Amino acid sequence: MSRIGRQPIPLPDGVQVDVRGSSVAVKGPKGELDRTFHPDMKIELKDGELVVNRPTDARQHRALHGLTRALLSNMVLGVTEGFRKELEIQGVGYRAELAGPNLIMHLGYSHPIEVEPPADVVFDFDARSKVITVQGIDKEVVGQIAADIRKLRPPEPYKGKGVRYLGEHVRRKAGKAGKIG
């Protein structure tokens, strides 16, 4: 059995789960998430815990077992605590600002870039430390939005300028070795 797949998911207080065949809706204090899973996976609600079972030991079922359990766990965690990704801006003249819910970024291009958040995602920006925070209840969406923001100006290896995840290490290059200054 899958070590991850066989673990039951405990449901905290205030979380309601509606299992309809292969579709699961999770409702909690921060919001509501709905997802359809592979029809072979059996999702059951027993004694305040979600349990995922697989029909056979086929390779595909073993792979789907752990995946289904991890996705369900992230849904429960998202509606109770939420998820956040932090990015930092480094570079002279690189900055960002909030205009309502939207994030406007000045990243050395000839024009500012405006990023509009999808539903259930909130941006926060600390101008002093140049840290952008992406918060939401869906882990997949939060991670994708953070990756899209980083892709606007990835950190370059010579001076390290660009948008990076908070705490991300960027390998630096020496530059022109023959330059004497």
CATH class label of the largest domain: Alpha Beta
Strand order of the largest sheet: 11-12-7-13
Largest sheet: 4 strands, antiparallel
Number of alpha- plus pi-helical segments: 2
Low-confidence runs of at least 5 consecutive residues: none
Please report which band the strand proportion falls in: under 5%, 5-15%, 15-25%, 25-35%, 35-45% or over 45%: 35-45%
Number of domains: 2
**Gyration radius, in Å:** 21 Å
Class per helix and strand makeup: alpha+beta
In a few lines, what is going on in this structure?
By secondary structure, this protein is an alpha+beta fold.
Keywords:
alpha+beta; Outer Surface Protein A, domain 3; 2 helices; 20% helix; 13 strands; four-stranded antiparallel β-sheet; 2 domains; 36% strand
